[in-house]
């Protein structure tokens, strides 16, 4: 197939924010996750753990707790003292209600999801009723000094356990009185007494309260008597987070040393009645504090300050030993943070509050496979564009010619004109940007850089004409014929400017303005329109289906797509655990398509046969050792390269030139604060 | 199940709700606790002293269930697992339920005349139901033991106690002995042992009692009302704690009888009925108006736990220190536990001699140990050995440890006077099985040394924690002086050497030769430059053990024993030069063997550690420095050792030097790896 000149970029200094809290919705198999920068993400476990929704963060809006309540409504609360409901269709905070108790440290929803309890800085626990369209203050429960760091409802909803510094309280919800007060470091001699922070708490239906505290202990209390039933020290540093399985027979504990532990309620003797909590499995997947853990029926999920989301399936709960039993780690977002100006060879990196524009280097040498070529020009950091205000950036884009840069925050849309004069660069804000309904969820520039497509809510797409030397005009707004409430999160335009594909949150791949691709009950992770054939190429998060090719002119799936669906994709291809986040095409060869996910880059050659399950899927190194005729027999459509990992972005600049943006885990770790000191033997 | 005056009421503890409730008619009174016959799942109640009622779960009305009116008043019904329930009448007569039901109106004999039954309990001893009950008459207490199958009834009188009388009893049976515990009003618990196999038919023996526990805690006294036995070291007492200045509080306490300490207590402010039951590691008692169930757990008692210093519950391994307080061997304890009933844990008790005992010069019931000591002095070897075997096969009693000490001392004395007498097997068995120590039988090792019983010495060195350095040295000297040929014929435990020495008696001769050769060749080389090749050569030269495996195992036992340098050094100076060199050579061999392994530990059980080897080497060199310098063969050995150690030192210092370079390399590699930008060629086929 040939050699590529690969521009291997590792200077994108993205540091994903740490995971602060998580909430799992059992019915919808969705995990809501809040990061330390206030960003909220929703992962759909049914759709192969795809990050379905992302609400960018906000400088002043930290999220300390997340709750699913009243069905599929997501609430967050944080140190700004507000309860916020998130609009998961328009992907922004819908409203905020002041808790009037100072910073909110904890929030918990009762089993029915009708009431929210918040724990405040001033030591109060307040109840809010979840009503349609909002939350309503219901009452204050007994207030005691000391911030309420964690809350847990008794499954029956009659009592609330609240953890503070040095003590746990059990509150009667109906009377609002403190029914029990348990001192957690009662047994510590007075001389050694330090402040003991109860970081996390769980209230079981049996009346047992489980607490994890800053001494690294996991303790089991009888709430009625206030007695300690059992105490396990899991760590010398703090045990920060705790989650209980629905059956209440297993818990997971996260510590600040990065370790997570599973405890299980096991019979003391086989077949016996008496059961005890036993520490069964330790895991060390994180390097930093594990601030959030979730126990789903089949997996332990932990999120750490090292920004990793780790899903550790419980082998005994997984039906078949297959794909489901694999440990998964997610560090990088499933969203595109890099945009590439192919013609100008520029890369635009999107950070939470600024953008960076880089020019790629070049070389005038050629070489053999694997060689590193000497650079004739170094890559250049052209400009840094800081976003004003506390809001984080939703999306950004650079035009293919490199002369337009656009980005959007929750409330503002910015368009800049970049002038390249030799090596000098100047930037000018485009005045008179049309007042659009914001935020914009995705920006896409037409390939001739003449138009900008702005993805908006309710499935609409605004089309803005970019005018030389630095102006713009709102042409029209495209709306889906059927109407949808969800925002558009992916866009793709055709090279000839006739077609635009848009995907909204309800997974409908809308096609402006002719037809809709048949809906498939799974999230679209990437899509692109082929410049020559106008075939729409779609990848889904579902591992069973994966790839589709839809011919726009003929309004039907192509013959190749049908053959793929008939013969099925290779087993190993289906078992990849990260979604394809970008699709690009070879401008010179219509049958070649570039796909990539975090761990691999693949050039799909439609002219070659598909591999069957017996064939070797990742066969590049094998092929290189074969003779020409033997090689020919072994060829198949998937040409996979796993050299570049973890891959944030890959694109074809031209038919012989690739650009890859990697973000090695070591680089991320180097920028994180040092973890809790751990004594290692011999150091 | 609860029995009230008018109703009985079984409950499921975990569910906390009643399973059923039956009441007798108004005017009738249930006169003894209702029991459940687990064989048939029937409930048995007695109301109005004489009317027996038997019903099942599905019966609703107690009036309509089976009824039998008896001729005598019932004191209590006892239900036993896998046996018929026993009915004890107020007159002391006992019937099994099936016998009674055949003819309800049968006449019941009056065993006790004016005495009143205070307490009763039933056991199964080898499928045989045994009933024990305590009666009182004018301040005297009597114990009756009735074996139903044997139709035997024994009456004992309980030793009287000044100014106090028993309040509460509990008993358990183990190994044909009933242990009766009595809580006295003097706030003490006494233990009474009642042998079940009583052959003498004499009337009214008096039972002596021994103090088990004094219920006092630093000034305050626990007024016990009832108590239960938890395991061999623990009892739980329910009572009120009365301090001198405060008002009394009711509380549940757990006591360790071994260390006489209060292990745990729980205050019961709402008051109790004074009764305490215990089934399956749970206490049951009424607290206020509710029945409280408390789960307990008794850890294996140790002194450390009793004084609250227990750090780790891990059991110590073979080379642990002697626990002076452990009276029993673990092994025996297990066997005891398997035999005893589930409710009661093992308890050290004295076994009375069984009738089968055939040794004629020992009277039944007499102190066995004393007799044994006498017989050791003059009886024939065979007789003594027979005696000793019997002693070993018996269960120990609390002072068994001391008794064994005196037995061994007596044996040793006999050995000293009578050279032909040497019960070797018994001694080995004793040392291996019991946790003996040097100080308990000081002359044992001396005699063994005299007899050159190397196996016994080996075991002693491995087991005893307190061997004086003098004896250790004597052992070493003996081991080194005995020839390998002699040792080959002896039975020595080779466990510590088996995994690193080849035991091939055939080519042993060849090996020794090679050792010599190896050393001499090594010696001729005189270069200070050390290369890897040379090191390998040196390894070769000491590849063969300078001593036979038996001797090596014995020397390992010496290396393994504890010592203090200051005390050992003067003795070590007396070691003959040849032996010192041989020992040094062996140590050198061990050291090389250790160094061959990456973790510098020899494989196998009880094999010496590298620090033990090094310490002995240094000690030996300190003791014999001048001699070593003079002796030509020692010189060779020393230079070989020096070379080896020097090679090691150099090797490690070189490693240290290149550590920096290696780190630098790694850093450089990382740098190239983390280059922020590069243009590479990728070929896809």
From TrEMBL, chain A:
Highest rank taxon of the organism: Eukaryota
BP GO annotations: maturation of SSU-rRNA from tricistronic rRNA transcript (SSU-rRNA, 5.8S rRNA, LSU-rRNA); regulation of DNA-templated transcription
InterPro entries, sorted: UTP4 (IPR046351), WD40/YVTN_repeat-like_dom_sf (IPR015943), WD40_repeat_dom_sf (IPR036322), WD40_rpt (IPR001680)
Annotated SMART domains: WD40
GO MF: RNA binding
Gene Ontology CC entries for this record: 90S preribosome; chromosome; fibrillar center; small-subunit processome; t-UTP complex
Protein name (Swiss-Prot/TrEMBL): UTP4 small subunit processome component
Organism of derivation: Meleagris gallopavo (Wild turkey)
Automatic annotation (TrEMBL), chain B:
Swiss-Prot/TrEMBL keywords: Activator, Nucleus, rRNA processing, Transcription, Transcription regulation
Record flagged with keyword Repressor: no
Membrane-spanning parts: none
GO biological process, one term: maturation of SSU-rRNA
Localization per record: Nucleus, Nucleolus
Listed name of the protein: Nucleolar protein 11
Origin: domain of life: Eukaryota
Main location: nucleus
Transcription regulation found in the keyword field: yes
GO cellular component: nucleolus
Nucleolar protein 11 N-terminal domain segment(s): 12-297
Matching Pfam families: Nol11_C, NOL11_N
Classification via InterPro entries: NOL11, Nol11_C, NOL11_N
Segments forming domain Nucleolar protein 11 C-terminal: 371-684
GO MF annotation, one: RNA binding
């Amino acid at each position: 197939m040939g050699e590529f000149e690969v521009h291997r970029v590792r200077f994108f200094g993205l540091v994903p924010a740490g995971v602060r809290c998580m909430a799992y919705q059992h019915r919808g198999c969705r995990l809501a996750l809040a990061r330390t920068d206030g960003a909220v993400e929703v992962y759909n476990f049914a759709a192969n753990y795809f990050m379905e929704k992302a609400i960018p963060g906000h400088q002043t809006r930290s999220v300390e707790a997340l709750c699913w309540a009243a069905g599929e409504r997501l609430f967050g609360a944080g140190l700004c003292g507000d309860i916020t409901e998130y609009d998961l269709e328009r992907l922004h905070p819908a409203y905020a209600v002041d808790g009037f108790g100072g910073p909110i440290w904890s929030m918990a929803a009762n089993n029915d999801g009708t009431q929210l309890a918040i724990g405040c800085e001033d030591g109060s626990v307040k109840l809010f009723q979840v009503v349609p369209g909002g939350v309503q203050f219901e009452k204050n429960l007994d207030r005691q000094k000391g911030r309420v760091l964690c809350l847990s409802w008794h499954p029956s909803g009659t009592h609330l356990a609240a953890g503070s510094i040095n003590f746990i309280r059990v509150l009667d919800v109906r009377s609002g009185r403190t029914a029990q007060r348990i001192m957690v470091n009662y047994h510590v001699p007075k001389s050694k007494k330090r402040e003991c922070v109860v970081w996390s708490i769980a209230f079981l239906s049996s009346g047992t309260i489980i607490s994890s505290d800053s001494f690294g202990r996991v303790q089991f209390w009888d709430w009625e008597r206030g007695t300690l039933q059992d105490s396990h020290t899991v760590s010398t540093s703090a045990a920060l987070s705790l989650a209980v399985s629905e059956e209440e027979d297993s818990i997971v504990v996260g510590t600040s040393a990065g370790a997570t532990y599973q405890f299980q309620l096991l019979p003391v003797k086989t077949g016996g009645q008496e059961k005890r909590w036993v520490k069964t499995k330790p895991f060390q997947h994180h390097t930093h504090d594990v601030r959030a853990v979730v126990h789903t029926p089949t997996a332990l999920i932990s999120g750490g300050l090292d920004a990793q989301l780790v899903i550790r399936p419980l082998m005994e709960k997984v039906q078949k030993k297959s794909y489901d039993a694999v440990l998964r780690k997610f560090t990088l977002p499933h969203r595109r943070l890099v945009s590439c100006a192919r013609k100008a060879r520029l890369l635009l990196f999107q950070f939470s509050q600024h953008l960076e524009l880089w020019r790629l280097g070049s070389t005038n040498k050629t070489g053999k496979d694997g060689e590193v070529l000497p650079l004739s020009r170094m890559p250049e950091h052209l400009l840094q564009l800081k976003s004003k205000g506390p809001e984080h950036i939703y999306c950004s884009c650079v035009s293919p010619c490199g002369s337009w840069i656009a980005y959007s925050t929750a409330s503002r849309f910015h368009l800049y004109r970049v002038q390249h004069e030799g090596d000098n660069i100047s930037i000018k804000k485009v005045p008179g940007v049309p007042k659009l309904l914001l935020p914009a969820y995705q920006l896409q520039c037409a390939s001739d850089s003449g138009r900008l497509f702005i993805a908006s809510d309710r499935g609409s797409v605004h089309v803005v004409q970019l005018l030389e030397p630095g102006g713009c005009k709102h042409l029209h707004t495209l709306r889906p014929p059927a109407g949808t409430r969800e925002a558009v999160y992916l866009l793709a335009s055709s090279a000839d400017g006739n077609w635009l594909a848009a995907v909204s949150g309800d997974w409908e791949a809308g096609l402006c303005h002719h037809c809709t691709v048949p809906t498939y009950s799974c999230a679209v992770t990437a899509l692109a329109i082929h410049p020559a054939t106008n075939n729409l190429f779609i990848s889904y998060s579902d591992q069973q289906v994966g790839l589709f090719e839809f011919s726009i002119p003929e309004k039907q799936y192509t013959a190749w797509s049908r053959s793929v669906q008939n013969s099925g994709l290779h087993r190993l291809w289906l078992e990849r655990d990260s979604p394809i986040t970008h699709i690009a095409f070879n401008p010179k060869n219509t049958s070649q398509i570039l796909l990539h996910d975090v761990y691999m880059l693949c050039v799909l050659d439609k002219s070659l046969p598909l591999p069957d399950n017996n064939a070797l899927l990742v066969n590049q190194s094998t092929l290189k050792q074969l003779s020409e005729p033997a090689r020919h027999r072994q060829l198949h459509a998937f040409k996979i390269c796993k050299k570049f990992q973890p891959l944030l972005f890959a694109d074809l600049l031209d038919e012989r030139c690739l650009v890859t943006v990697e973000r090695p885990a070591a680089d991320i770790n180097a920028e994180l604060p040092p973890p809790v000191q751990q004594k290692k033997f011999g150091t | 199940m609860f029995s009230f005056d008018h109703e009985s009421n079984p409950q499921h503890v975990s569910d906390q709700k009643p399973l059923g409730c039956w009441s007798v008619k108004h005017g009738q009174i249930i006169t003894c606790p209702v029991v459940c016959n687990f064989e048939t799942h029937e409930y048995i109640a007695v109301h109005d002293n004489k009317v027996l009622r038997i019903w099942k779960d599905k019966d609703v009305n107690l009036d309509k269930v089976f009824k039998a009116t008896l001729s005598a008043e019932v004191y209590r019904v006892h239900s036993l697992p896998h046996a018929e329930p026993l009915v004890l009448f107020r007159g002391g007569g006992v019937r099994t339920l099936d016998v009674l039901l055949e003819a309800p109106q049968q006449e019941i004999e009056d065993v006790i005349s004016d005495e009143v039954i205070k307490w009763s309990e039933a056991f199964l001893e080898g499928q045989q139901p045994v009933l024990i009950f305590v009666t009182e008459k004018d301040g005297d207490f009597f114990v009756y033991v009735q074996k139903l199958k044997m139709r035997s009834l024994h009456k004992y009188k309980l030793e009287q106690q000044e100014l106090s009388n028993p309040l509460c009893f509990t008993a358990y049976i183990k190994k044909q002995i009933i242990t009766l515990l009595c809580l006295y009003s003097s706030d003490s618990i006494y233990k009474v042992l009642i042998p079940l196999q009583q052959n003498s038919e004499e009337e009214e023996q008096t039972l002596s009692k021994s103090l088990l526990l004094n219920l006092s805690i630093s000034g305050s006294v626990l007024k016990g009302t009832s108590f239960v036995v938890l395991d061999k070291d623990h009892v739980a007492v329910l009572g009120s704690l009365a301090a001198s200045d405060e008002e009394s509080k009711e509380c549940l306490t757990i006591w360790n009888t071994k260390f006489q300490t209060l292990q745990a207590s729980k205050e019961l402010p709402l008051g109790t009925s004074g009764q305490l039951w215990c089934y399956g590691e749970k206490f049951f008692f009424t607290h206020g108006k509710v029945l409280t169930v408390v789960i307990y757990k008794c850890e294996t008692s140790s002194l450390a736990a009793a004084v609250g210093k227990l750090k780790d519950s891990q059991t110590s391994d073979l080379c642990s220190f002697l626990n002076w307080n452990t009276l029993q061997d673990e092994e025996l304890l297990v066997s005891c536990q398997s035999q005893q009933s589930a409710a009661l844990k093992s308890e050290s008790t004295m076994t009375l001699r069984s009738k089968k005992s055939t040794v004629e010069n020992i009277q039944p019931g007499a102190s066995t140990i004393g007799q044994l000591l006498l017989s050791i002095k003059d009886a024939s070897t065979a007789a003594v050995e027979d005696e000793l075997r019997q002693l070993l096969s018996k269960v120990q009693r609390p002072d068994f440890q001391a008794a064994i000490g005196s037995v061994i001392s007596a044996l040793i004395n006999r050995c000293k006077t009578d050279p032909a007498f040497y019960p070797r097997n018994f001694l080995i068995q004793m040392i291996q099985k019991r946790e003996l120590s040097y100080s308990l039988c000081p002359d044992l090792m001396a005699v063994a040394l005299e007899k050159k019983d190397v196996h016994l010495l080996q075991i002693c060195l491995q087991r005893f924690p307190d061997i004086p350095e003098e004896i250790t040295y004597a052992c070493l000297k003996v081991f080194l002086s005995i020839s390998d040929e002699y040792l080959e014929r002896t039975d020595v435990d080779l466990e510590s050497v088996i995994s690193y020495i080849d035991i091939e008696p055939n080519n042993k001769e060849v090996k020794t030769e090679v050792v010599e050769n190896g050393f001499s060749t090594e010696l001729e080389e005189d270069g200070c430059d050390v290369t890897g090749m040379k090191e390998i050569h040196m390894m070769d030269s000491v590849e063969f053990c300078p001593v036979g495996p038996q001797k090596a195992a014995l020397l390992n036992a010496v290396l393994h024993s504890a010592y203090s340098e200051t005390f050992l050094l003067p003795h070590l100076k007396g070691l003959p030069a040849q032996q010192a060199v041989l020992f040094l050579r062996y140590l050198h061999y061990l050291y090389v063997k250790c160094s061959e392994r990456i973790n510098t530990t020899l494989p196998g059980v009880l094999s010496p550690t590298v620090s033990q080897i090094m310490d002995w080497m240094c000690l030996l060199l300190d003791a014999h420095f001048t001699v070593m310098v003079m002796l030509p063969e020692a010189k060779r050995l020393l230079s070989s050792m020096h070379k080896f150690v020097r090679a090691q030192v150099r090797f490690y210092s070189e490693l240290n030097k290149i550590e920096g370079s290696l780190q630098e390399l790694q850093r450089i590699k990382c740098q190239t790896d983390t280059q922020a930008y590069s243009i590479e060629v990728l070929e896809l086929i």
